[in-house]
Amino acid sequence: MDLAVALVAYSPYAGHPVVRLSMEGGALLFSALNVAVLLMRRIHSPLMLVFGVSVAWFALSSLAFILAAPWNHMWWLAHAIFAGGFFLLSYGVVQAFRTTQSFATIYSQEEMTARLAKSMADTQKGTSASEIEQSTAGAARRH
Fold it and tell me: Where are the transmembrane segments (predicted)?
């Protein structure tokens, strides 16, 4: 994908309005779709919130690039908005690393499933032990 974008960017067609609009419009559409999916799935974890806001900033930068002409104030603003989204996304990645102490465990579904199963087993064990203690205490009081 990067090579295809680079070929278009360095071609004589790069400045053509149809090319600009299709590429920035595609990025805007993709970013808006991403945010819509996050909202529809009601994902509210702090890291996903950071991700959603950064993607929304990327969408805004695409809109600013559509409205801009090279080297005018809107063009520079579009770059600033994009940089803000990138720095926010980088902050989220650093927070994820600090939380898990590893980039590998951020995306490891197997480890998350194993941790969840262990947590559920611990909770069930604790609940069962509490119920047994309560029934034993209740039987002792009756006698």
Answer: 20-40, 47-68, 74-94
